[in-house]
Design brief:
Elements lengths: L1 E5 L2 H18 L4 E4 L6 H14 L7 E4 L1 E3 L10 H8 L11 E2 L8 H14 L5 E4 L21 E4 L2 H7 L12 E4 L2 H5 L3 E6 L5 H9 L17 E6 L20
Parallel strand pairs: 1-10, 2-3, 2-6, 3-5, 6-9, 9-10
Antiparallel strand pairs: 4-8, 7-8
Helix pairs in contact: 1-2
Length: about 250
């Protein structure tokens, strides 16, 4: 696992976008895993810039998102469908047919989860998966206690997660209690993992993920098992790390 500490969030975002762009240029038909939340927004802005100004081509790419709330229609402004189209997809040349996001309004959620796994398998697996991290150490919506071998499934959101996400809703009462999420086992099968974190509120989770034991109590710690994982954090999020970590290398081994 490679850990890179950058001075600012903007530099974290540009490095992550550059890694994804390099992967896509090498493999135009890449299967890209995307995340939601505030952390990847800078990365998405940079990917949009690379598309508009440098011709980064998404026309052959296939995308899979990590998660979605149960009970929010796709046009709800807090759904992750809405988030992804507003913040990335409608600004690049990705084909709508190639975009996959869990459907929290599915009539048969259990079957939908199985089919989501099958879709990933049918496309040859994820080439690169972008990840954020919750303040409680969750990745996607795999809350503390999640099996490290879990697959796409229904999950109950931890109260800490609901409190953290309440800022996006009018009140915490509007934050859904259930979600669909890609499992940790599914995530670990991606060829490349890129985990991002920024802000002092993520420092403890980052330290436990990078330097602590591998444990279901800190789901993100499972990335220590991955042979090709990069953690990119800003200075504030690195505040509790006990070892020294480098800045970005001159060449990125993807």
């Amino acid at each position: 696992m490679e850990v890179i500490v950058k001075p600012t969030y903007d530099e974290v975002s540009k490095l992550a976008a550059g890694m994804i762009a390099e992967f896509l240029r090498c493999k135009p038909r890449a299967v890209l895993g995307f995340a939601t939340g505030s952390t990847p927004l800078g990365t998405y802005k940079e990917l949009i810039r690379l598309h508009r100004e440098e011709g980064l081509d998404f026309s052959q790419a296939v995308t899979f998102n990590l998660d979605e709330y149960i009970g929010l229609p796709k046009d709800n402004d807090q759904s992750y469908h809405y988030f992804m189209w507003e913040n990335l997809f409608k600004h690049i040349n990705v084909l709508e047919a190639n975009v996959h996001i869990p459907d929290g309004m599915s009539e048969d959620l259990h079957r939908h989860c199985l089919e989501y796994e099958e879709e990933i398998f049918d496309h040859g697996g994820l080439d690169v998966q972008l990840l954020g991290i919750g303040s409680n150490g969750h990745i996607a919506f795999n809350e503390p206690g999640s099996s490290l071998g879990s697959r796409t499934r229904i999950k109950t959101l931890d109260e800490k997660t609901r409190q953290d996400n309440a800022r996006f809703f009018k009140s915490i009462d509007e934050v859904p209690r259930y979600c669909l999420t890609m499992g940790i086992g599914t995530i670990l099968e991606a060829e490349k993992l890129i985990l991002l974190a920024n802000g002092a509120n993520k420092a403890e989770a980052v330290q436990k993920t990078v330097e602590g034991p591998i444990t279901a109590s800190v789901p993100a710690s499972a990335i220590q098992l991955h042979p090709n994982a990069t953690v990119i954090v800003d200075k504030a999020a690195s505040g509790k790390l006990t070892r020294k970590y480098p800045g970005a290398p001159a060449m990125l081994d993807l």
